[in-house]
């Protein structure tokens, strides 16, 4: 298969038989693409044919086949990012955007050491017999690992720092990070205590009767080996000193993209873990797409193998022992972070849009955590010109350059966040603290599926956020909700939004709308019980009846072959609009009409309160004209 030669992937349409050649962003491509209508043509491009559509061209009907293409970066093909409603809404205010993987955490484990029989077999291969297999000898191996590692660090001048429990390690390694771009190897070792599964051995009369792990893992020393890789930049190997030497390898996708961009001469300006204004976002987006391809998994595992044996495991097992016992790590994914970064043209517009989103959605989506760290600067209004040197923002804990607001939703081990980075970048992020919660596997072969789930989770979150942010209620929707409905052969009552219980269910559905993968009836029961004083008043019977009524109205849909329900963006807009009209329009205005004495006017009044006062005065005059006593 021949690779595409153009610089950026795109989706384009070919009208078969209408044009002999086509152009894509100034680059001429031959129309030699095999299609469902003409499969005999050559196929120099790789991609996916999408369902055809009928259109009229030059007075006659033509059939258009949409072909989603891919391009290649360093031998790895790239794909287009999935659009979302929030990005489309902000499109006129954006200069550019890109998707990128952030934190990647892999578990490195020796398969024989995961079971008691396998660990005993490995011990026999290592020492010839299991006569010395006890806790004392296992602890002695951990001590030898620590002593050899400290000795090698002292010999090579690598600092070793002990970190107390609860202290953050970020500020420590940043102080020791080498500034030279040509540095390669280990530059820091941190030691901290953390729980780990340690094998316990029980003997009776000199014979082994049980090999087990305690349910409550003991706290033992872990060694955090910080190093710089030529491809992946800063990496961390977190290794337990007790056999079978389980490890975690921590990488960052932004580091890989920055390394590849430097090699290709792409201009970048990086602050902390984000590409800021002055960077070539389109080129960075093409490079970042390559990391999300299945072919990238080979580069990822090669980087892990390059360091985990020679810089960590060698202090517990010599290279000869590794070969003799066939000690080889297997990798599985543990944590993933996927982000969408939006570069605004003006920082003040970013602030306005983001703050409005927070004000409109926080109460409806039940955001329990909203953190703002105040800074001392105004966001830049001027757009940095291409080629102009960008100002580096020094971010500290005590005093930030700009106000940093974190909008965060957590569902078990899955986290959805939106926060601002630097002056003009807004980041939307999906975090899987344990990828098992994605329910699609953790092995190396699940790389593409995991990333698809992460991207889908992020897009659904941004669609839900935009639906709550800009709610809309169709004409006649309230009357339609109150009408009886039918689900199968069952006749159901309508949704009387004047009843408190139905309104509480609507609020609970909005709070659950951002849950990845949908929600179950048990989740709705928990939400309702937290909103009511009497927890026993709402149970399984009530939630089944309410879900049936909302489903019959098309506001909630049931996921086939599962117990999960989902609420679509159109339904979110309708429910959010009704609740806003009732709670934030009708109730305040009617309450103000009933209160004839306003008191002294405020010196500083919010624009929304000013609108309420204007509506109150107009409504009073309207009621007086109609002859209605307020």
Give a short summary of the structure.
It contains 16 helices and 26 strands. It has an eleven-stranded mixed sheet. A three-stranded antiparallel sheet has the order 1-5-4, with no helix packed on it. Strands 2-3 form a two-stranded antiparallel ribbon.
Helix and strand arrangement:
Layout: E1 11-15, E2 21-24, E3 27-30, E4 47-57, E5 60-69, E6 71-73, E7 76-78, H1 85-89, E8 94-109, H2 116-127, H3 135-156, E9 160-162, H4 170-176, E10 185-195, E11 199-204, E12 207-213, E13 219-229, E14 233-240, E15 247-252, H5 253-264, E16 270-271, E17 274-275, H6 281-291, H7 296-311, H8 319-324, E18 330-344, H9 347-361, E19 369-373, E20 404-411, E21 414-421, E22 425-432, H10 447-469, H11 477-482, E23 485-487, E24 490-492, H12 500-512, H13 521-531, H14 540-552, E25 557-558, E26 565-566, H15 569-594, H16 607-626
Work out the helix count: 16
| Number of DSSP E strands | 26
Q: What percent strand?
A: 25-35%
Count of structural domains = 5
The largest sheet has its strands arranged as 9-10-13-14-15-8-18-22-21-20-19
Instruction: Estimate the global geometry from the Cα principal axes.
Output: elongated
pLDDT < 50 stretches: 1-79, 372-378, 382-401
């Amino acid at each position: 298969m021949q690779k595409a030669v153009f610089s950026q992937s795109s989706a384009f349409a070919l009208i078969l038989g209408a044009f002999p050649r086509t152009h894509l962003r100034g680059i001429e491509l031959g129309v030699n693409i095999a299609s469902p209508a003409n499969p005999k043509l050559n196929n120099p491009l790789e991609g996916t044919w999408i369902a055809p559509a009928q259109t009229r061209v030059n007075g006659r009907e033509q059939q258009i086949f949409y072909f989603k293409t891919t391009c290649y970066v360093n031998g790895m093909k790239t794909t287009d990012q999935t659009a979302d409603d929030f990005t489309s809404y902000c499109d006129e205010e954006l200069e550019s955007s890109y998707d990128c993987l952030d934190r990647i955490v892999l578990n490195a484990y020796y398969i024989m050491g995961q079971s008691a029989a396998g660990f005993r077999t490995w011990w026999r291969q290592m020492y010839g017999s299991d006569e010395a297999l006890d806790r004392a000898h296992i602890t002695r191996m951990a001590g030898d690992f620590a002593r050899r590692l400290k000795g090698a660090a002292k010999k090579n001048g690598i600092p070793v720092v002990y970190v107390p429990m609860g202290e953050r390690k970020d500020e420590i390694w940043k102080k020791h990070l080498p500034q030279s771009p040509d540095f390669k190897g280990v530059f820091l070792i941190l030691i901290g205590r953390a729980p780990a599964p340690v094998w316990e051995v029980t003997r009776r009369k000199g014979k082994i009767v049980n090999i087990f792990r305690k349910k409550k893992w003991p706290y033992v020393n872990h060694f955090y080996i910080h190093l710089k890789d030529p491809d992946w930049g800063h990496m961390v190997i977190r290794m337990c000193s007790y056999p079978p030497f389980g490890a975690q390898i921590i990488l960052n996708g932004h580091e890989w993209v920055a390394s590849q961009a430097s090699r290709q001469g792409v201009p970048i300006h990086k602050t902390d873990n984000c590409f800021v204004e002055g960077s070539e976002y389109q080129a960075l987006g093409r490079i970042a797409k390559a990391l999300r391809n299945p072919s990238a998994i080979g580069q990822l595992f090669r980087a892990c193998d390059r360091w985990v044996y020679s810089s960590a495991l060698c202090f517990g097992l010599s290279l000869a022992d590794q070969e003799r016992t066939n000690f080889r790590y297997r990798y599985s994914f543990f944590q993933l972070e996927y982000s969408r970064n939006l570069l605004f043209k003006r920082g003040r517009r970013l602030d306005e849009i983001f703050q409005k989103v927070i004000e409109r959605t926080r109460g409806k989506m039940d955001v329990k955590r909203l953190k703002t760290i105040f800074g001392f600067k105004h966001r830049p209004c001027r757009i940095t010109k291409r080629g102009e040197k960008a100002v580096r923002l020094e971010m500290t804990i005590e005093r930030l350059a700009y106000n940093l607001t974190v909008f965060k939703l957590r569902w078990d081990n899955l986290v959805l966040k939106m926060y601002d980075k630097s002056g003009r970048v807004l980041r939307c992020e999906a975090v899987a603290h344990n990828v098992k919660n994605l329910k699609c596997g953790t092995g190396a072969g699940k790389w593409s599926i995991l990333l698809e789930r992460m991207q889908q989770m992020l897009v659904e979150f941004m669609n839900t956020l935009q639906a709550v942010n800009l709610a809309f209620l169709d004409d006649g929707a309230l009357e339609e909700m109150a009408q009886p409905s039918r689900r199968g052969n069952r006749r159901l009552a309508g949704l009387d939004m004047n009843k408190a219980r139905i309104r509480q269910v609507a609020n609970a559905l909005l709070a659950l709308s951002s849950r990845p993968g949908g929600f179950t009836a048990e989740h709705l029961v928990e939400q309702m019980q937290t909103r009511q004083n009497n927890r026993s008043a709402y149970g399984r019977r009530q939630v089944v009846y309410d879900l049936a009524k909302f489903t019959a109205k098309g506001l909630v849909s049931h996921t086939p072959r599962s117990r999960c329900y989902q609420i679509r963006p159109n339904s979110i807009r309708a429910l959010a609009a009704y609740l806003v009209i009732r709670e934030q329009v009708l109730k305040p205005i009617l309450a103000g009409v009933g209160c004839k004495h306003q008191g002294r006017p405020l010196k500083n009044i919010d624009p929304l309160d000013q609108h309420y006062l204007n509506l109150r005065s107009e409504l009073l005059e309207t009621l007086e004209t109609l002859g209605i006593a307020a």
